Amino acid sequence: MNLRNKYDIPSNSVITIAGTVGVGKSTMTKALANALGFRTSFEKVDTNPYLDRFYADFNRWSFHLQIYFLAERFKEQKKIFEYGGGFIQDRSIYEDTGIFAKMHYEKGTMDPVDYETYTNLFDAMVMTPYFPHPNLLIYLEGSLDDIIARIQERGRPMEQQTPTSYWEEMHERYEKWINNFNACPVLRLNINEYDIVDEEQSIEPIIEKISHFIHQTELLKK
Ligand SMILES: Nc1ncnc2c1ncn2[C@@H]1O[C@H](COP(=O)(O)OP(=O)(O)O)[C@@H](O)[C@H]1O
Ligand SMILES: Nc1ncnc2c1ncn2[C@H]1C[C@H](O)[C@@H](COP(=O)(O)O)O1
Fold first, then answer.
1. How far apart are CA 87 and CA 41, in angstroms?
2. pLDDT tens per residue, range 152-191
3. Mind giving me the DSSP string for 128-165?
4. Global ipTM
5. Ligand 2 centroid distance, CA of 21 (Å)
6. Closest residue (by CA) to atom 15 of ligand 1?
7. Handedness of CA 51, 57, 60, 62 (dihedral sign)
């Protein structure tokens, strides 16, 4: 039986997967979309023209990369809207500003004027009543050691060569960010509590949680 029907997940739902680099968002996106018969919206990593340059020189490329990601995510957002939902999205647009742009600005690797231009653009595009928020944000969390092990195992050279302190800083910021996040309902999942890589069926209890969460949220709205 289709798990979407079994757990009564509305076919127009938009679920976004958030969490630090390497935590397992893409893997979760694929597994959930497959189990629910939803479409996927992925970040473009391999074809991103700025990512390698950015990791080689944060100061020089921070602004360009943020603008690139913002444009890409906005196109994805439009696609999701045009299909009428039914999507699992790999990373939320909120993390671009709440984690990455902010971190580079505060660490001095994004120029203050560039940061202001970026946040103005972000607010004008995203923080409007017309911008559809996801029905649910699934936040994946895990220990720094486990996440660094996954980054190393996945093997993107520019990430492997980035100092551990960068991932540590990001890990801390994510924790603070999610504790204050309120743009949509949040379901937190610890990566030690499931293994969708070796046990495909372990996606079902996650879908059960999602269903519970979505229905509870709907009830609260009434
Ligand atoms: N549930 C899991 N158990 C074990 N390894 C995982 C799991 N989810 C992801 N991984 C591994 O961790 C690495 C990063 O996962 P990925 O989904 O690409 O992360 P993200 O999209 O968050 O950057 C990959 O090598 C992937 O195979
Ligand atoms: N907004 C962003 N700023 C800087 N870097 C970013 C941003 N969004 C994603 N990234 C980087 C981080 C990773 O190296 C890749 C892909 O992210 P992942 O979490 O592995 O999906 O892009």
1. 7
2. 999 999 999 999 999 999 999 999 999 999 999 999 999 9
3. STTSPPPSEEEEEE--HHHHHHHHHHHT-HHHHTS-HH
4. 0.96
5. 6
6. 24
7. positive
